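Q: I'm writing a short explainer about Chitooligosaccharide deacetylase for a general audience and would like to include a description of its predicted shape. Could you first generate the structure from this sequence?
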Amino acid sequence: MKSLLLTIVLISFSFLSPMGVTAQESEKVWNGHKCAVVLTYDDALNVHLDNVVPALDAADINGTFYVPCNALPLIERMDEWREIARNGHELGNHTIFHPCDGSLAGREWVSADQDLSTYSFFRLMEEIRVGNAMLKAIDGKEHRTFAYTCGDKSVEDSSFVEAISKWFPAARDVMFRIEHQDEVNPMEVGSFFVMNNTGEELIAQVEKARMEGGLLVFLFHGVGGEHALNVSLEAHNKLVEYLQTNKEYIWVAPLVEVADYF
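A: Of course. Here's the predicted structure. Afterward I'll give you a sentence or two in plain language.
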């Protein structure tokens, strides 16, 4: 009888995790959800305020907007950026002048004044540090994430990733990968680069992340225009609608919140 009782107890515990969580619950590793999605938007465009924010707000979803501090839509519409930050959207650091390495192939469009290959390490660090101060003056916050401009992570032939890790809980990369909690490097979070994708294609990426139980970060520029790297407003909004409908399974939050979680 004792042997039978012991067997029943052991079988019962086999269905529990070490913390007493059922197998089904243990799959919900992202703040009680099966996967996480972060919507990020680069370069502080007018369409972000005019097209993106209304769609996100209507779906009760918050995103991350990576803001170069010299962007005219930021300077000319600062009160609106301050308002969206107040409403839960993240204003992320994207430097002041958005420098990119002009020495790389296909980078002929980089101006001499914004050529990262001519920057000193000190100059870039100051630009990022002052960018944080400028964003704090807008949203009153000290805690935010960073996005590498053009995905460049080196200056004067040295990586600056470790140097900025003391200022940010996470930084978004441009290399695509679905992240998993036991593998993610917070300072090089992968992302899906969106350009001319259909709504169905974007949703398919989310479904993949959901099946894998991972984190998917979308990288948008233009949404309905204003940038050569563009996606239609229809495709964007179809994704947003899908995320809203599936909130039970998909955690959608700004990168700063997800980074604090993992």
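A: For your explainer, you could say: The chain has one domain: 32-261.
Q: Perfect, that's easy to follow.
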